[in-house]
Amino acid sequence: MSVLRINISNLSEGAHHRSLRATPEEVGLDSRFKKDVTVEATLEKTSRQLYLRAELKTGGAFTCDRCVEDFECEVSTEYSVVYVTEDRAGVEGDGEVQVISADTNIIDLGEDVRQFTLLSLPQKLLCREDCAGLCPTCGTNWNRSKCDCAHEEVDSRWTALQKLLKN
User: Could you give the CA distance from residue 46 to residue 41 in angstroms, rounded to a whole number?
Assistant: First the structure.
C-alpha cells in the first residue's frame, strides 16, 4: 500500500479535493526520477460511483536517446478513474473503470500514479527537440561541435543493392 491514499469512508456526495505528495521510491518509480511526486486529485462522489480526476507532477534526470547526454526533465500528466461497486451497473464519466467492494474505505492511487507517470514519458527521450545527436563515425556530439568526417546521405532503402555492386 502506498502513501497516496484517499479515505472515502463517510465521504459526502459532491466534489472533494486532495493534495498528495510522495517520494518516487514510495510510488515505485526508478532511480531516474528525482523530484517528489505531487498529485492534485478531485474526487466526485455520487450515489452510484466515485469519479477521480488526478493531475500528477514529478521530474528527473534522463539520458538523451540521440546524444547520450544527461538532462533534467519535468514530467506531468492527467488521468481519470471511475470507481464503481460490484453491484452497480452503468458507468458515467471518462477514463478507466475500476471495481471496488462496497465496504472499501481507502482508495490507493500509488500503482495508478506509477503507471501513468511511466506512460507519460515519450518513447524517445530527447534533451531538446532539435538535438543533433552524435556523429556515427567519430562520436562527436553535434550539439557542441561539428566534426570533419565525411557524411554521405544514403537512402537506407538502397543499402542491399549497394552491397551487390561491391561484390
Answer: 16
pLDDT tens for 90-116 read 555 556 899 988 888 999 999 999 999
**Which cell numbers hold the place of 49?**
460511483
End-to-end CA distance of the chain: give it in Å, rounded: 63
pTM: 0.78
Round to whole Å and give the CA distance between 81 and 3: 18
User: What CA–CA distance (Å, rounded) separates 105 from 17?
Assistant: 17
Residue at grid coordinates 514529478? 58
> In what helix (H) or strand (E) does residue 111 lie, and over which residues does it extend?
helix 110-120
Q: Is 123 helix (H, G, I), strand (E, B) or coil?
A: coil
